[in-house]
Amino acid sequence: MFKRVAAAGAVVLAAVSLQPTAAFAAPPPVVGGTRAAQGEFPFMVRLSMGCGGSLLTQQIVLTAAHCVSGSGNNTSITATAGVVDLQSSSAIKVRSTKVLQAPGYNGTGKDWALIKLAQPINLPTLKIAETAEYNSGNFTVAGWGAAREGGAQQRYLLKATVPFVSDATCRQAYPGLVNNEEICAGLPQGGVDTCQGDSGGPMFRRDNANAWIQVGIVSWGQGCARPNYPGVYTEVSNFAAQIKSAAASL
User: Fold this and answer.
1) DSSP assigned state of 189
2) What is the pTM of this model?
3) Distance of alpha carbon 78 from alpha carbon 53, whole angstroms
């Protein structure tokens, strides 16, 4: 299994990636996706280590634990936001000040982390699911990761739709799936997935008020968009209370 962190220079838009063995490995991109419109997902963030993220608040980015190396003061990460084109002159770039990796994270499950920014980014945030109510149906994934397994990272934000996959079905591919901490999504025939460089980015859908709500964090998978190997995502609702408490502590 590989975490969905991208290697330098890789670009692929795939929804399934494996967790990297080294911290800061780059996540995979979205595979089988289409280009997102400017402003379509204003809460999306690209992180300089090659991962994605979302604005939990205007000053805190929610990402994957495997994208960072421990907790503490950290000014080495740059968050890019406000654009779908990473080379746009209007991109907002802000440095990190602190990182909080999920307590007890050891490479399996608990794949979430928070990055505090030096200053707020004046863009819409993405609320997180606090119950399992939205852990079904079709989800949207987006990222600047590779658009094919082994591909390069993307300049433009890609998006795709992936359906929920039950734990029972997902365990046929991944017997070690962690109960209540991981949620799967993908097409049985493959072809659409997150990939290297997409790690840490959100998996989201519309709530009952038609607002976007985050239900997953791109975590890992076997390759990208392979048949019968869905993408594995952190189940956000299970960690919502911890995430909110941790954000308040930052």
Assistant:
1) T
2) 0.90
3) 12
| 150 domain-assigned | yes
Catalytic residue among 17, 96, 111, 198: 111
Task: Classify residue 77: in a domain, yes or no.
Answer: no
pLDDT digits (tens, 9 = 90+) for 191-233: 999 999 999 999 999 999 999 999 999 999 999 999 999 999 9
Q: 61 lies in a domain?
A: no
Query: Is residue 111 annotated as part of the catalytic site, yes or no?
Result: yes
* 238-249 per-residue burial string, b: 16 or more CB within 10 A, e: under 16: bbbeebeebbee
Helix, strand, coil in percent for the chain, rounding step 5: 10, 35, 50
Residue 100, amino acid? L
Q: Is residue 143 part of a domain?
A: yes
Half-sphere exposure of 97 (CA within 13 A, CB side): 8
Q: Which CATH number covers residue 165?
A: 2.40.10.10
**175 C-beta neighbours (distance < 10 Å), count:** 7
pLDDT in tens, 56-103: 999 999 999 999 999 999 999 999 999 999 999 999 999 999 999 999
Catalytic residue among 54, 66, 96, 237, which? Answer: 66
Check if 199 is active-site: yes
Q: What is the span of the domain harbouring residue 199?
A: 127-237
Residues 244, 114: Cα–Cα separation, whole Å: 10
Number of domains in the chain: 1
